[in-house]
Every structure is written in C-alpha cells, then in structure tokens.
Amino acid sequence: QKEVEQNSGPLSVPEGAIASLNCTYSDRGSQSFFWYRQYSGKSPELIMFIYSNGDKEDGRFTAQLNKASQYVSLLIRDSQPSDSATYLCAVNYSGTYKYIFGTGTRLKVLA
Amino acid sequence: GAVVSQHPSRVICKSGTSVKIECRSLDFQATTMFWYRQFPKQSLMLMATSNEGSKATYEQGVEKDKFLINHASLTLSTLTVTSAHPEDSSFYICSASGGITDTQYFGPGTRLTVL
C-alpha cells in the first residue's frame, strides 16, 4: 500500500527561524511531489512542486527531494507568524493523476 | 493563473434534501477534477476522480449513488449529495488539473451542514 508519512507536530519555531518539514513515501515509483499549505477552515493552497532530485527554491521556500532515501522536505526561511498552518505533503505516482496525501504537519511560528 | 472556484461556499440543509456543489476552473481547461472530503482535524479524503465526458471513478467505500458527480465540460464539475444526512456534514473540496503537469489546484471548499 502506498503511504506518505509526516510528523503531525505541532512544530514550533521562533519568528525569523528556519522551519524544516519532512515527508517520507513508500513507493519508489513516485514521480511528482507537492507541498500545500492549509490554514484552519480553508482549502489547501499550492506552495511548490518538485520532480527531480536536489533542491528547488522559490522565495523563502526550498523543497528538497531525495528519491534514493524516499523523502521530500520543505524549508521555510525567515518564518513568520503568518506561516502558522498545516503543511501537507502530496505524492503523485506514475500512471495515475491521484495524489496520496500525508496527514500534515502543523507549524506554529511564535512571535 | 490556475484559479478554481466553488459554489456555494457554505450550505445548510435539512436532512433528506439534495445539495449540488459546483466546481469551476476559471483560467484553464481541467481534464481531471477531484472531489475530497475533510472532517475536522483530519486529512483530505479523496472521494472520486472525474474526467471530462466520462463517468467518475469512486474511491473504495464512497457510495456512487449518494455522491453523484458530473464532469460535463473542461471547466465544470458538479457533486450532488443526495438525500443528505447529518453524518454527511463536512468540508467538501474540489481540485482540478490540466495541461502537461499533474499539479492539482484546489477550490476554496464548501462547508455542508445537514440539520
């Protein structure tokens, strides 16, 4: 069974620090990896996606993918209280358009 | 770009009635749309996947006769909750993907309360 695992948290970091969120997945056939942010009571919004091994940067966010170790991470630099939310990792497998979602990590950025 | 809308954003209905939720991709053609349900403090649960012009594919345990999905065009999918009951109260979210990437863009969600 294909699985995506995340630590549920909460992960608490002080304002201005780097928040590091991790996600592991079970199936080596995984092709695409996504990070979404979900505020309480709202729907998920796309932060970024990554397809290839290595780092991908977009503003304060960096996604890191290591297919050999089957993990993907999201770094948030200069964390702000407005970054406090649940971060969902999603994995798409070859041959299907469906995502497998992790249960999400709740991030708290303390002012 | 990649904007998905949902209507209504919130609906309250009596037990036994049917509720229709619309999902539209506003600035791209969505070849595939997805319907999710989320209960409080839980993760997203995929209900079904729909492709334009074909029948929806439902996930195991989701009643296809209760949750009717129609994907009539490349920009519109509808979910009808038939004979709604209080246990159907939840946050229903659609997403859409299209083009050459498999990225899903989510609508703002519909909060359904069945009395």
Describe, in plain words, how this protein is organized in 3D:
- The complex is a heterodimer of chains A (111) and B (115).
- Chain A has 111 residues and is mostly beta strands.
- Chain A contains no helices and 11 strands.
- Chain A has strands at 4-5, 11-14, 19-25, 30-38, 45-50, 54-58, 61-66, 71-76, 85-93, 99-101, 105-110.
- In chain A, strands 2, 4, 5, 9, 10 and 11 form a 6-stranded mixed beta sheet that branches. Chain A has a 5-stranded antiparallel beta sheet with strand order 1-3-8-7-6, with no helix packed on it.
- Chain B has 115 residues and is mainly beta.
- Chain B is 0% helix and 51% strand.
- Chain B has strands at 4-7, 10-13, 19-25, 32-38, 45-51, 57-58, 67-73, 76-81, 90-97, 105-106, 110-114.
- The model of chain B has no long low-confidence stretch (mean pLDDT 93).
- The interface between A and B is medium-sized, with 21 and 19 residues.
**Multimeric state of these chains?**
heterodimer
Characterize the largest beta sheet of chain B: strand count, sense, and whether it forms a barrel: 7 strands, mixed
- Helix/strand order of chain B: EEEEEEEEEEE
- The total of beta strands of chain B comes to 11
The largest chain-to-chain contact, stated as pair and per-chain residue counts, equals: A-B, 21 and 19 residues
**Helix-residue proportion of chain B:** under 10%
Q: Can you count the beta strands of chain A?
A: 11
Number of helices of chain B: 0
Strand content of chain B: over 45%
Low-confidence stretches of chain B: none
Mean pLDDT of chain B: 93
Structural class of chain B: mainly beta
Measured distance between first and last alpha carbons of chain B? 37 Å
